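User: Can you write out an input/output pair for a complex, sequences first and structure second?

Assistant: Here is one pair. Inputs:
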Amino acid sequence: MINVTKTYLPDINKYQSYIEKIFQNGWLTNNGQFVQELQQELSEYLGVNNLLLVSNGTLALQVAYKVLNLRGRVITTPFSFVATTSSLVWENLEPVFADIDPQTFNIDPMEVEKKLSAHVSGIVATHVYGNACDVEALEHLARKQGIPLVFDAAHAFGVRNDKHSILNHGDISIISFHSTKIFHTIEGGALVFKDRNVFERAKKMINFGIESPTLVSELGINCKMNEMEAAMGLCVLQDVDAIIEARKVRAEIYNQALLELDGLQFQKRNLNFLNNYSHYPVAFQNEEVLLKVMKKLNNEGIYPRRYFYPSLNTLPYFQERQEMPVSEDLTKRIVCLPLYHDLDEAVQSKIISVIKESL
Ligand SMILES: *Cc1c(COP(=O)(O)O)cnc(C)c1O
């Protein structure tokens, strides 16, 4: 069975040597040695300051909303993984959707501007498939309105321009280290903060708000990363350049075969930032073609994923329907093709020929 992605597993002996160390130390969680090492190494690799490791990307979003004191309405994108929206609802925030740009698939700053009001307390935008948002336009709007800007950078591991990481934009960027992502820690995630003081507060928040053994200084939750996860991260980080390179080679095979075909649409990339090859999205002319391609591939044991479906403004827990025509149209037509470090070229050829036949 070929899925849209496959978890990268490092050398088992290498991982085992970390696990043995954890057993010797008897220290499994609470800011242990490997969590500290991973925090340091990731900060250097990514080129960021104020990076805080947590147990997953969804809780990273929730901690971001709490520490920035978001209240009431928050402007966000309808085209992302469900966690971008559900994390807001879970924190009793009210998502106000702003439609996406039909070419970049990222939230459209002009639509954001239309939704701004005194009732809006923040903006949450996703770098969809690692494609950098129009960060300057969004930062300008947030500053003008005096509200914080959060980036869901779950897909944007390693995305940078010649000067700095995409994670340095916004007040907080969050990233996911789930097993399905380019870089992973089994389950895990991180927040990157612009402001050192906000970072220090969040550090307490992820451990029940505890400041010292006799002082609880804030409301907190428990979302710490553990040593087994950090050890996995330290192993995978050593191989991550090779993982990204292997994905690039495979993405270019798809590009060669598919980019010039009539009837397919591709994401317009922000060329100011490097691609990390986190996904290989293809949009068809309509849902009928998409379903035909999916069915043929499923018959061959190949399972692309409809990232992202449905459009998040249509989730069943919203009473009032906000219409998002661009996102609703795209979600019906788009699919991510299998892309991972050791995807077989014969499988790619099969996928390419099924798509060609179906157009
Ligand atoms: C994966 C993902 C998340 C959630 O991350 P977890 O670590 O699985 O909780 C959030 N947002 C986006 C865009 C994602 O792709």
